Amino acid sequence: MTSRRYAVQRVPGSDLELQIIGRDMADDVRSVHSLSGGESFLVSLALALGLASLSSNKTRVESLFIDKGFDSLDPETLDIAIASLDTLQSLGRKVGVIWHVPILVKRISAKVMVKS
């Protein structure tokens, strides 16, 4: 999803802590806490998609809901995120996005709008 820009791995000796490997920075290892807002959003989305793909035959994850995060993305990264969601939709996955970013109104064709 991020053009192999990052890899995520477990911190050695830790059960739940993760770290980022910057592929475009000579495999520099850094804390997930060093990610920008947009980077954090993309890594979180990639992890959610990865977990969904690990679902077993008995438990299938067919829907994904994303709340916020799009406002922290620059235009190029937003294109990557939306292209990834488009790909999921074309594969038959249901993706729900909750947003407050006006550009997404134009970019996402099927929508339910809630106005107060």
Automatic annotation (TrEMBL):
Among the Pfam families in the record, one is SbcC_Walker_B
Could you tell me what this protein is called? Answer: Exonuclease SbcC
What InterPro entries does the entry give?
P-loop_NTPase
Lineage of producing organism: Bacteria, Pseudomonadati, Pseudomonadota, Gammaproteobacteria, Methylococcales
Instruction: Name the SUPFAM superfamilies for this protein.
Output: P-loop containing nucleoside triphosphate hydrolases (SSF52540)
Q: Which PANTHER family match?
A: ABC TRANSPORTER ABCH.3
